[in-house]
Amino acid sequence: AWVMLVGLVIAVPAAAISGVPRGLHGSALAWLIGAGVGNVAGLALEYFALRVGQVGVVAPLISTEGAIAALIAVAIGESLAPGVGITLAVIAVGVCLASVPATGTGAPSREHHQTSVMLAGITAVAFGASLYAAGRAGAELPSSWVVLSARVVGVVGLALPLALRGRLEMAPGAGRLVISSGVCEVLGFYLFILGARHGLAIAAVLSSQFAALSVIAAYVLFGER
Hints:
Blueprint: H1 2-18, H2 26-52, H3 55-62, H4 65-76, H5 82-98, H6 110-140, H7 143-164, H8 175-196, H9 200-207, H10 210-222
Helix pairs in contact: 1-7, 1-8, 2-6, 2-7, 3-6, 3-10, 4-6, 4-9, 6-8, 7-8, 8-9
């Protein structure tokens, strides 16, 4: 909820500057709503997965969002170069390897591992659908409005209910992490939309490489195996 509030502060001025788009109706509006709902649902599931599982397992599984978005694009009619198809196959193999439980000191229990794998898999589907919807919406609407959609859904669906119930709290020391997450979430979404205008499937697959950076960071910062 806090990440969405931070993102809203950034996204609202950008959307206001671009003005209300004329094409904000019909299929464009539907894609916009789908992108927002999928993104928020995916983030919520991702945070649950990270609470019980290792970053080095959860991140690679979630990174298949790009492959899922690409497959949706292909199923609807977009063509892929042979190299991209090979990349999708490599990703599938990598996912199988990433889901293998770790062993040794500090490894999560089998129950926690299975739960995190299941949540990460559902997250990947939600994010993949959101990426495809965002790419379609970004082709018809300003990028600022596509970015704004998820922030509005997140604030209305998460932040407001929590605030009304008195549960919108900030953990001590989490402020910097929340702000950096909110800023990076908005920046990453902007860049993906711009890339998707030149090739949705390719942008989706390439953007999924965030997992490699996450795994390295988890190894260095958290000592994950």
